[in-house]
Each structure stands twice: as C-alpha cells, then as structure tokens.
Specification:
The complex is a heterodimer of chains A (about 120) and B (about 110). By secondary structure, chain A is an all-beta fold. Chain A contains no helices and ten strands. In chain A, strand 6 and strand 7 (about 75-80) form a beta hairpin. Chain A is globular, with a radius of gyration of 13 Å. Chain B is mainly beta and about 110 residues long. Chain B has strands at about 5, 10-15, 20, 25, 30-40, 45-50, 60, 65-70, 75-80, 90-95, 100-105, 110-114. The interface of A and B includes residues 31, 33, 56 and 110 of A.
Amino acid sequence: GAGVSQSPSNKVTEKGKDVELRCDPISGHTALYWYRQSLGQGLEFLIYFQGNSAPDKSGLPSDRFSAERTGGSVSTLTIQRTQQEDSAVYLCASSLGLAGARGELFFGEGSRLTVL
Amino acid sequence: AQTVTQSQPEMSVQEAETVTLSCTYDTSENNYYLFWYKQPPSRQMILVIRQEAYKQQNATENRFSVNFQKAAKSFSLKISDSQLGDTAMYFCASFSGNTGKLIFGQGTTLQVKP
C-alpha cells in the first residue's frame, strides 16, 4: 500500500502479557515516529527514528517499553508486562527526512491496545 | 527541550462564527516549525496550517489563520466562518528543524454547533 500501515489494528491482552505493535512506513521514508494517545487525550511522544542515527527514546514512559527499526524500514514497538494504564491507541508516522518541517508527515490508523 | 501546551481541553462555537484555539510552546532552538493538526473522529491526522519560526508573517489557509507571537512563544489558531465539518480535536505541534523531532500538545476538542 501507499500509506503507513500499522498492525494489529486492535489488540486485547491480559495484564502482564507482552505485546508487539508493528509499523510499516512509506517506502523510502527515513523518519519514523511513535506516539501514544489515551482516550480523548493528546499525542504523547514515545520514540523517533531518523535514518541511521541513534533513536530519540526520551518519550518512552518506562523500561517496559522498547522499539526497534530493522533495516531502516519496519518498526516494532514492544510493551512488556502490560499494565492497564498502557491501554491507548499507538500511532505511527513517517516522513521523508526532515520533510516533516513542511508538515509532510504521514500517519497510520493506529493500533488500539486494551489491557484487561 | 521542546514542549507544547494547550490549555483549552474543550471549546464550542456556533456555525459561521469565529473561534480561536490557544497554544504556547517552548524550545531552545532557532530552527523550528509550528503546526496545527486536526484529528476528526476517524482518527486520521490532517495538517491544517504550518508556520516557519523565521517568518514574521502569520500563515493563513483559507478560513484558518494563526497569530504567531514569537517572543511570547504563542501560536494560536483562528477558525473563521466555522463549519460543522470543523468539529474535531485540534493539536498544536512543534517540529525541530535540527533533529526532526515533532512534539504535540494535549489537544483541544472543538465542537461546532448548528
């Protein structure tokens, strides 16, 4: 597809389980962002990848959260030992280098995580 | 560090009237850009308007305009002739031209009433 693809679109899990959320950015986009949006809330920055540079992990809320980006393309956000407060929509976005400066940021439809 | 603050969680406006959404930000950089994004119930993020920090002139896009006060680090969005389709959550955002990091505010839910 031509857009940013995220999977799964919905995930229900039990407290304490690990989950993996996947983001497939637009081909050729070097910048990839993860955000978390709790119900009716703003977009909380989690992590940012830009090319081969070290990722900016400053937004990860705890060491239960990690993300990687393999081959400069697909990214996986992993949440270990999930807690109920992790329930949210996780949004991924990508852009071509610093084209985000022009607002050319493309968002996926998000992965809705529910932790029971 | 970049921060963006939106102090109005919810606002409403009558159709055809004008509404202003507030945003303040903080950054230590000189090379940055500011945006307003719209998120309708479909959850898809839509760019409404952008402003280069080095430009003094306020950006306008049809019914949307901004009031960029650089010294005060304020970046408000004015929506004129509000339409029902403007009902959405609006996010103010700051983009670092040096690192490419994009930070959003908490959002303002706008309801346009008929």
